[in-house]
Design brief:
By secondary structure, the protein is mainly α. The protein contains eleven helices and two strands. 62% of the residues lie in helices and 4% in strands. Helix 7 packs across helix 8 and helix 10 packs across helix 11.
Amino acid sequence: MKITAVNRTIRALCTEVKGSAKEVLDWQLRTEEELLHEVCICMFSSQMIFEVAEEAAQQIKDHGLLRETTSEDYEQRLLAVLGKPLAIERDGKIRFARPRFKNRLASLLSTTVNTMRIHGQSLRDTLFSASSAHEARELLVQQVWGFGPKQASLFLRRVGYCAELAVLDTHILDYLRVARGIDPKPSALSRLSSYELIEVEFQRVAEEFGHTVGCVDLAMWVTMRVAKQEALW
């Protein structure tokens, strides 16, 4: 698929995204359990397809593992949930999948929850203490194990904190590589300073499309994902 066709599709999708956007629940109205649930989705989605990440996070929430005081076997209980097959509906069909890297994810989540509770921290306190979205992202990267700039940006968007931070996943980077000649090393994206340099370039792209970063980000993600699935890219 040529870049002109990709841009045309992105523009069309931006109009759809803008017209069908659902109102996101204000993060200030969310409980700590609900915020932790979003942390799970964002943390897991960097290791598996998004639908599996959502279902895995939901199972952890349904088992009450995001609202209880952690116990000595907390990580093992997380691992037990992540080790079970998950029923995923996609394209009208049900298939079963097991979360990838379940040991690592259970360790990351357990360490995050334990560390916050030992130090009397909470996600709500972190968001309230930040003076800007950039500061909130930096604090989340420091506080949540397994969070880099991309995961923190996605979290802030999903909870309605800010939609102008870019979520630079592989689909977005593929576009920037072809359209802007930007080809960063994966290690560079884990550094906030390097991430923000690429983010500025993406913000310029969003301005050219005439829509918000969040809108263009989602439209581009869908376009590139479908193009690669259908071997058009």
